[in-house]
Hints:
The structure is a single chain. This protein has 338 residues and is an alpha/beta fold. The protein has one domain (33-337): 3-Layer(aba) Sandwich (Rossmann fold), CATH 3.40.50.1820. 36% of the residues lie in helices and 18% in strands. It has helices at 4-12, 16-22, 32-38, 84-87, 103-106, 110-113, 120-130, 175-189, 220-235, 240-243, 267-276, 286-289, 295-310, 328-337; strands spanning 51-58, 65-71, 90-95, 135-139, 143-145, 149-151, 157-158, 164-165, 210-216, 246-252, 279-284, 316-319.
Amino acid sequence: MLSARAVALSFTLITVAKTMKSAASTTSSESRGQHAAASRDTFTGSPRKRLQKLPAVPGYVPNRVNDLLLLRPDTNNQSAPEPKEKRNNRHVVFFHGDIQNFQEEMALQPEGAQWLSWSLEQVAFTLGRRFPDRYVWVIRASRMYLHKFSCYHNFVESNMFGAPEHSPYLPDTGAFRHLRSLLSHGMERANLPNPLQPQGGADSIPSGFSLALVGFSKGCVVLNQMVYELGGARADPQMSPFIKCISAIYWLDGGHPGGSETWVTDKLVLKELAASGVSVHAHVTPYEVCDPMRAWVGREHGHFIKTLEEFGACPSKKLHFEDEPPSIENHFRVIEEF
C-alpha cells in the first residue's frame, strides 16, 4: 500500500514521473467486456434496491458511451406537497474524481482498495441522503487510465491523464449535448416516467424537469466545459430549454493535472454564467486551494468567486476543514459536507 504522500502525488498528478512510478504495478489495459460482465441491473436490499447500474449508455454520438448509476428517490421520506410528476422529474448528476470507480473494480486495485468508502455506489448513497427527493445519476468517466485517472473525453477534449482542453459550444457536439442524450437514454432504459427527449426545443422537456450538476475533483472539468459552452447553448433554440432547467451547479474541490484552468477565469465566460441565473456553489478544502506546490489553484478559485460577484452573481462559497492539515481524506469528505 502506498504512503499517503505517494497517493496524494499520484492522485493530483503534480509530478507525472512519480505518478507513473507509483502506478507501475497497475495495468494500462482496460476491458469493457469484463466491466460489462461484472455489471448487474439492480442491487438487493434497502437502500440498495433503489440503485441501478446502466452500462454503456450512449450519448448524442452512439459510439460515445458512459456507464451510469441511478439511485431512485427515497419515496418514504418524501413529504413535499408538490404533484408527483414534478417530484419524479428532479435530477442530480454527479461527476467523480480520480481513483473513484465501481466498488468491485476499486477492490482489485491496491490504490483503490483503501478508498472503497468513496466508491461510486457509496457516493450515490451519500448524494441520496443529501437529495432524498431526486433521482441521483453518477456518470462514470469513459476511461480510467491506469485504473485511477478519470478521463471525461466524451464531454471535453482531454489527454490520457484527464487534463482538459476547453472549447466553445458547437451545436452537434460538446458536454451539454452529450449530457442531455445520456440522461434521455438512461431514463428510457430505466423506464422512468416522463423521460427527457434527446433533442428538441421546449416541447421536448418533460413537465417539472429540473437538474442540478455536481462535480468533484477531476469531475469539475466537465462543469468547466459546460461554463465555456453556456453562451452558445443559451443562444441555441434547441438547447436553451434544457439549459433553463439547470437550477444549480456545485464545484467540490476541483482539481486536474494541468497547470492552469482548474477554475474558470475567463471574464466573458463567467459573465455568461452570472447572467444565466444558475445557482453557483463552490466548496473547497486546503488540499486543493492551499497547496503551495499548486498555488495557481487557490488564485484561480479566488478569481472565479470575485469575478462572479463583480457581475452580480451571489455564489455560495465555503472552505471546509480549514483548521486541519490538508489530506486526501478531507478532500473526499467534502462530498459529505457540502
